[in-house]
């Protein structure tokens, strides 16, 4: 049955899901979908934290008074993942790659702010309900993380507009997100 794990469902964690990047056949554009191996779902232990209580009513029905994860996402597909050098170049993937990517963006944000930003989850969700959401995040609306384990279908979740239990609020547009996040934390 679908489940989440610790510590990703802990409310003090910024939980990171995974996406896949695809380059268009022509031109230089990319599209991004939910990675089919990304985790996500609803905690059996933690109630909906205050920062998720401002999500729309449709999301509140999904949450059903539970902590929903992930909060955000980034490229995690090993086929399009991060370039890693370890005696030679290779592609790294998994949410073990998307989480450090978010950590790096937050390290840059701390540098830009001139101080540690601290617990960012309330500010992330504040941005999700603001007019800056569409420029701060790439909202992932395509993909699913259902999986087949030894011939048994384990139903997952669909990527949908806004927050969803596979890509959270979406992947970052760091150029816009960093100054908007700093402003949201200040004010």
Features:
single chain, 187 residues, alpha+beta, three-stranded mixed beta sheet, two-stranded antiparallel ribbon, globular
Word description of this protein:
The protein has helices at residues 57-63, 95-113, 121-128, 133-136, 174-186; strands at 16-23, 30-34, 41-42, 68-69, 72-75, 82-85, 89-92, 137-138, 147-149, 152-154, 171-172. By secondary structure, it is an alpha+beta fold. The strands form 5 sheets. It has a 3-stranded mixed beta sheet with strand order 2-1-5. Strands 3-4 form a two-stranded antiparallel ribbon. It is globular and about 45 Å long. It starts with 15 loop residues before the first strand and ends with a helix.
Summarize this entry quickly.
The protein is an alpha+beta fold and about 190 residues long.
Structural shape:
globular
Structural class: alpha+beta
Report the biggest beta sheet as strand number plus sense, adding barrel if it closes: 3 strands, mixed
One letter per element, helices H and strands E, the order comes to EEEHEEEEHHHEEEEH
Helix fraction bin: 25-40%
How do the strands line up in the largest sheet?
A: 2-1-5
């Amino acid at each position: 049955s679908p489940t989440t794990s610790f510590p990703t469902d802990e409310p003090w964690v910024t939980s990171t899901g995974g996406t896949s990047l695809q380059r268009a056949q022509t031109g230089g554009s990319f599209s991004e979908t939910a990675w089919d191996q990304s985790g996500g779902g609803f905690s059996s232990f933690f109630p909906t934290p205050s920062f998720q209580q401002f999500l729309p009513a449709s999301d509140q029905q999904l949450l059903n008074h539970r902590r929903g994860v992930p909060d955000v996402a980034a490229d995690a597909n090993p086929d399009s993942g991060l370039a890693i050098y370890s005696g030679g170049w290779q592609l790294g993937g998994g949410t073990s790659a998307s989480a450090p990517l978010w950590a790096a963006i937050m390290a840059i944000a701390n540098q830009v702010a001139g101080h540690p930003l601290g617990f960012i989850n309330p500010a992330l969700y504040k941005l999700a309900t603001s007019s800056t959401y569409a420029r701060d995040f790439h909202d992932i609306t395509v993909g699913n993380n259902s999986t087949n384990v030894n011939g048994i279908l384990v139903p997952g979740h669909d990527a949908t507009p806004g927050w969803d239990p596979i890509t959270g609020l979406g992947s970052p547009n760091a150029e816009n997100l960093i100054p908007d996040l700093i402003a949201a934390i200040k004010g």
